[in-house]
Amino acid sequence: MESPGISRRRAMAAAGGIVAGAAVAQAVAPAAFGAAAAYDADAIVIGHGLAGLVATAELVAAGRKVLLLDQEPEASLGGQAYWSFGGLFLVNSDEQRLMGVKDNVDLAWQDWQGAAGFDRGVDDPLGQDYWAAKWARAYVEFAAGEKRSWLAGLGVQWFPLVGWAERGGGLATGHGNSVPRFHVTWGTGPAVMEPFEKKVRAGVAAGKVVFKFRHRVDEIVRTGGAITGVRGAILEPSSAARGTPSSRTAVGTFELRAPVVIVTSGGIGANQDLVRQNWPARLGPVPKKMITGVPAHVDGRMLGITQSAGGRIVNPDRMWHYTEGLKNYAPIWPNHGIRILPGPSSMWFTADGKRFSAPDMPGYDTLHTLGSITATGYDYSWFVATQEIVDKEFALSGSEQNPDLTEKNVWKLLSRIWQTPEPVQKFEKYGEDFVVANTLPELVAGMNRVAGNNLINLDDLKRQIEARDREIDNTYSKDAQVMGIRNALTYIGDSLSRTAGAHKILDSSKGPLVAARLNILTRKTLGGLQTNLSGQVLDAAGAPIPGLYAAGEVAGFGGGGVHGYRSLEGTFLGGCLFSGRAAGRAAAAATAS
Q: Is 528 helix (H, G, I), strand (E, B) or coil?
């Protein structure tokens, strides 16, 4: 039994603190494991996020010795996964069946292909989508097969109400999930990360793993065609809290040797220069202003470094950014943004007050809506809702914005039934993007004040809202969004927790009116280092580079772009799990004595 006030996570962190305190000393020590061979370890893993932890855990399970490097201090162990909502894409799960959802691998693969739109040499071994499509099929089968049992065996549990993300709004063969598949982990992102952190820390205690915090890799060393190690800079010790920027001041250099290097360094989401450089024309003009959904260390620098070692980068123009971003009133990292995870009922308007049409509706087609927003010439848009819609439908992304789920607090979770979740309340009160008003004229005045212009015309907005409200009088409608609301209410998971009863926006009994200015929020890299199904990094000729592997976001979550053009959601953490496991197992087999 744990002592009062001492959690398992705190105990694990305390144990790792001993290692962190000796990090600089380890950097200049002789061979990390006292090996007689020319190598310091069997493998070097670059990046201590989720994919890196999973790969390291697999190597340790196979008896390998690992150096786990990251430029950040120990406080940021787990990377972006720690901050995530913990959503996982599962197919034909126990939770789905409990909700009456009928799902299978064929339906999921149909949805994945419709979302991905693979069109870059799927049948050509040198095509950008050749390995991506193979990874996609393998991942869908994993999500329909052992993924749930594997994670459940590690102690991971899920909230029983399955979410319905990315609904598509088009044909059966187009983008979107035909059924709910978004499984929220009980404990959110930290609970997904914890089993693998525990395994890695056990590896440290057993002398199988050495953490190398504050070790920034600047070069992957290749000797005679094969990978033989890494070189880089030792950064000064940092007390930066998790997610906050740490110093980049170098105090020394290092060179470490291993026959295997696994790159798990993440994407480019916090590097807006790289985001803009790779922005595709199909998403419209590059926004003048964006907020950032990931910590500053998600800088994409290892992509270029691995490319210099011979690795091939594919699909760099594919990326996943959200359209429902709020500026964080209490930022942790620079330009910190939080996403609204919307239900289906808010009305969505352009910056100048024109209602979007299908499929640009809340929760339907993120990238299509992104293109529609940029096409307006503005880099923001508006939700208009009632307080009842906000209370029932607004959730905020991130573990820190969902303390009930993250802390596994049932009482706090149940309180959502009778009150607005506290994090949403705080954004309404303190966030600069919210307007709350009792009347529509007051709301419009507030929207124009927040935006610093007079783009919203009261009469025009009123006309559009009243037209939509007339569609509520019957249980059927020609309005695509109203049809979508009624469709959502037929699913028990939505009707219980994610969809307000169909009502008129101008019904004063539903509480005050609420408007939220929505900013574009940078998040995920969908392209990256091309890898085969073993996680081996490929060169320009399609050949594996001996000893070089990649997993997670830096590899497009597998194959250089497992998602194709679009995500079905719940697939980023899962992609780190799947690709990290594959790379770790393959690397362990490659280093068998």
A: strand
